[in-house]
Amino acid sequence: MSKTVAIITENFGQYDPGSIHSYLSIGGFSAVKKALTMSSAEIIEMTKKAAVKGRGGAAYDTGRKWAQAASVPGEDKVVICNADEGEPCTFKDRSILSKDPFRLIEGMIIAGYTVGAKNGYIYLREEYRHLRPLIRNAIDESLSNGFLGDNILNTGFSFQIHLYSGAGAYVCGEGSTLIESIEGKSGRPRIKPPFIKECGLFQLPTLVNNVETLAIAAAFIQHGVEEYLSHGTSGSPGTKIISLAGNIKNPGAYEIPFGLTLREIIYDIGGGIPDGHELKLFQLGGASGKIGPASIVDTPYTYEDLAKEGLVVGSGGILVVDDRTRVIDFVKSIQDFFIHESCGKCTPCREGNRQIAKIIDRFVEGSQRPDDLQTAERFANIMSNCAFCGLGETAQSTLLSAIKHFPQEFGLTEVAENEKH
Amino acid sequence: MKNIKIKIDNIEVIVPEGTTILEAAKKVNINIPHLCYHPDQAIKANCRLCVVDVSGSRKLTAACSSFVYEGMEVHTNTKKVRDMQKGILELILANHDQDCLKCLRNGNCELQALCQRFNISKTNLVDTVDALPLDDTNPSLIRDSAKCVKCNRCVDACQKVQEVHVLTHSHRSVHYNITPAYEMPLEQTFCVFCGQCAAVCPVGAIVEKDDTAKVWDAIYDPKKHVIVQVAPAVRVALGDAFNLPKGTIVTGKMVAALRRLGFDKIFDTNFTADLTIMEEGNELIQRLTKGGTLPMITSCSPGWINFIEGRYDHLLAHLSSCKSPQQMFGALSKSYYPEMAGMDPKNVYTVSIMPCTAKKYEAQRPEMMTNGVAEVDAVLTTRELARMIQSAGIDFVALEEDQFDNPFGIGTGAGAIFGATGGVMEAALRTAYEVITGKGLPSLNFTEVRGLSGIKESIVLIDDMELKVAVAHGLGNAKILLKQIEKGESPYAFIEIMACPGGCIGGGGQPIKSTRDVKEKRIEAIYKIDEDLPLRKSHKNPDILKLYDNYLGEPLGHKSHQLLHTHYHSRGMKYNFSELPNHK
Hints:
The structure holds two protein chains of two kinds.
Chain A: H1 20-25, H2 30-35, H3 40-50, H4 62-71, E1 78-83, H5 92-99, H6 101-115, E2 119-124, H7 132-144, E3 160-165, H8 175-182, E4 206-210, H9 211-223, H10 225-229, E5 239-246, E6 252-257, H11 262-269, E7 279-284, E8 291-293, H12 303-308, E9 317-322, H13 327-341, H14 347-365, H15 372-386, H16 390-394, H17 397-405, H18 414-420
Parallel strand pairs in A: 1-2, 1-4, 2-3, 5-9
Antiparallel strand pairs in A: 5-6, 7-8, 7-9
Chain B: E1 3-8, E2 11-16, H1 21-27, E3 51-54, E4 61-62, E5 73-75, H2 79-94, H3 110-117, E6 141-143, H4 153-161, E7 167-170, E8 177-180, H5 196-200, E9 206-208, H6 212-220, E10 225-230, H7 251-261, E11 265-268, H8 269-290, E12 296-297, H9 302-311, H10 325-333, H11 336-341, E13 348-354, H12 358-363, E14 369-370, E15 373-374, E16 378-381, H13 382-391, H14 413-416, H15 423-437, E17 455-462, E18 465-473, H16 475-486, E19 494-498, H17 516-532, H18 542-552, H19 558-564
Parallel strand pairs in B: 1-5, 10-11, 10-13, 12-19, 13-16, 18-19
Antiparallel strand pairs in B: 1-2, 3-4, 3-5, 6-9, 7-8, 14-15, 17-18
C-alpha cells in the first residue's frame, strides 16, 4: 500500500500545526529563506520547470500565471489564497490547512515576493470556520517571528497576510466572485475584462492561487524541483492530493503520483467498495465534473488520459458510487446542489437549473414526459454554451455524462442511443 | 484611437478599439437580441440573449460584453446561435407572467417583441412563475416580480445613476430577486419615486401606478369641473408615443387631444413655472440681500425633495420654500380659480399631466391642501396621457392644433425651459438680474448651465455682485454638490437640482426609451420653444402680473406665503424591523 507519496504532505503529522516553534524545529521556513535569496525571475523559472497546473480545478499553468502577475505593472499588488474549497467531496485543501498551515504561509510569502505583492489574503470557506483559530495563529506567529510584516528577514521585502471568511457560497471559489466577496459584496462573478491579474481586489493587480498550488511551490522551492519531478508521467509530472470519498472503505485525502490508474486509487489506496458491492461509476473533480462508468476504471489518473475519456482532474475529488445507487438519484443530488449554489445572475444558469430540476424530479418519480430528456439535454447545452461563468457552464456535466454512459437508466434503449449519433 | 476591422456575418465593419460586438453589429444594421443591455448603462451581460458565435471560440460569446479585436469573425445568425437565443428566451418566458393583455407594457415590451421575432408562443417548459408578492402600496410605482426578468437595468438606474441604493438583488439561484433590502415595499424605503427604474425596465415589472381610470371617472362625472395642467416637458415627448420623430413639439395637438378627451379647461404649467420664478427669484434675492441660508436650492423636483428629506435632511434649510409649479397650479386651482369662476373648490377636479412619477407622490402629501381639499386630484404621466388618447381612438397626428385656455394659459420661454436641466436656473437668472439691477439683460441665454454634463456651473455678474451658481441633474450628481455643502465648501449662492438625468424631459414618466440621444433632441426642442416665444422672462408674463395685482399682492406676500410656499420635513427611517416579511 505504498502507492501514496509525501512531497506536498511531507510535514503532515511531523509537527504541531499550532506552534511555529514546532514548525521551525523540523526546518520550517527554509523555503522562504531560500526564496528570498533568489530573484523573482529565478523563482518563476523554477515554477515553470515544475510544470504545476493550478490545483483549484482550472489547471492553468502556475509558472505562466506567476510570470504574468510579476509583469503586470503596479506598486501595490495582492496575492489571494483561494481556500474556498467548495466542491462536494473535495477536502484536500482542508488537509493542508489543518495539518500544515505554515507551509501555506510560506507559499504565500514566496508568491508575494515573486510577483511583487504587499498583501496576501486567505479566503477561507465559511464551513472551515473551525480552522480559523489555527490559521489566525499561524499568521500571528509568523508575524511575531519576523516571517511576515515589514522587512522580512532583513531582505527589504514586506508582506502582510489577512484572513477572510466567505459566507458559504460555492460560486465564491471562482476568482472574481471571491474578490467581490472580500470586498463585502454579494458573491457574483465579475465581467472580464478587466482581468483580475490587472484589476482585481480593490482594483489592484491580483494573483489568485489555490491552497495546494501554494503548498507545492513551497515544497519545490525547499527541495528543488527534481524530487517533485521524479514522480508522475511526462504529460503530468509530479504529485497530487486527491480526496477519495463515497462508497469506499477508506475515504480520505491522499497524495499520489500522477499516473496511477483509477483502479489502483479506488481499490489499492481506498480499499475498494464496502459490503461486497460493485463499482458503478465515479465522479472526478467535484460536482461540476463528469461521471465515468466502471468500465473505464483502468484509465491512468493524468490530465491527458482523463481528457481522452472526457474527464478532468479538476479539484482532485474522486467520488465513488456503487451499484446500490440509481443514476437518476445521483444526478438529482448534484442538481439539488446547483439549484442551491447558482448565484442567479444569468438566465441560463438560474432558469436552466430551475427547469432541468423539474425534469429530473419527474424522472426520479418515474412520471417523465416523452420529450423531457430531449428538453433537458437541449437546455443543458444552452447552459454550457451561454452561462456567464464556469458554474453555469459545468453545472450539467453530470446530467450530460450520465445520459451518455447510462442511457438505459433514462429509458433510452441502446438502439435509440445509436440512432442519435 | 485605433480602428479595428472585423467581419460580422461576412460583412466587413471598421469600428474604434473598445467597441463591443453588439455595438459594432448595430453599425451594419444587425440588431443582436438583448434585454439587459441598455445604451446608457454599464455592461451587465446577465440575460445572455446576445450570444453569438465568434470563430475559434469553443463556446458562444456574449456580444454586449465582448470587445472587438482585429480579424474577429462573428456569426449572429447561425442555427446554433438562433437555437440558443431562442432557448434562453424560452427560459425567461417560462418564469414570466404572460398575462400580456393586462400589462401596461403590452405592445411596448422588449420581451414581447423578442418573442415575436423568434416566433415563440409556447414552450415545453413548465411555466409556473415563482415570484415575490406585488408591491403596489405607494402612489407612484408598481413593482410586479412575476414579470421581472432580472436584467438589473433598474438596479443600475437606482444605484449607479441615482445613487439612491434602494433596489438591489437578494438571495441566489431560483430565489434571486430584484427588490429593496429585506423585500420591503418601496413606500417603506428611501425610494424617491423618480421612476428611473420604470423608464429603463424592458418589461412591465416596474410601471407607473395607472390613474387613468380615476381621471375618466372624473370626466364622466357631471358634477365635476375637470381642469388639466400640462408640464413643460410633456409637449416635447408625447409625440414619441405616436411615432413622431423624437423631439417633435406637439403642444397644439396635445391641447386639442385633451379637449377631445373631455377636460373642461386646459391650462399650462408653464404659467405656474413663471409664478415659481417670481417667488423663488425673490426668495433668492431676499436671502442674498437680507441674509438667509445659502446656497439656496430649488424645490421643483419632487424626486429631489424625497431624496433630501430622506437622506440629507440636515440640509433642508437650503431648500427654497416654494412649492413646485404643479402644486402652485393646484393651489390656485382650488382658490383663485374657483373664486373667479364662482365655484365651490370641492367641485373643481384638478388633473396634472407630468413627465414624472414622483409628482403622483407629491400630490398626495398632506401639506398639499388648499381650502380643505387636495390641490391636485390626479397626476398622469406622459405615458398615461398617451394611453388615454389611444384609448379614446383619437388620431393624434392628424389633429389640428389648439390653444391653452385662460387665465393660466400663457407661459413664457422662462417657464418652458423648466423642462430641461438648467432651465430653472436660467429662468431665475433672467428675472433676478433684471429685478435687482433694473436693467435689461444683454443676452437671455445662459448657455453654460445648459446640456447634459452632470454638473454645470456659471458665474453671473449682477451689478457688483458675483453670483456663483450650479446645476445638477440625476441624484448621483446632486450628491456631489450636497457633500460640498456638508463640508462647508460650497462656493455657490444658488443651486438647481433635478432628480432625473436631463431634467424633466428625462423624467420617469416619459415615453419608454428615453435614451441619452432622445434626451438631447427633447432639450433642443425645449430651447426652440423658448426662442420662438415672444415673452421669455417670467416677470414680463402679463397674466402673472395680473394675478399679483388682482389676487396675490406681491411675491413672498401673505397670500403667496399661504398658497405657494410650504415646509419640507425629514422622512425619517421607515423600516420597522419587527415587521420584516418572512424569509425563505
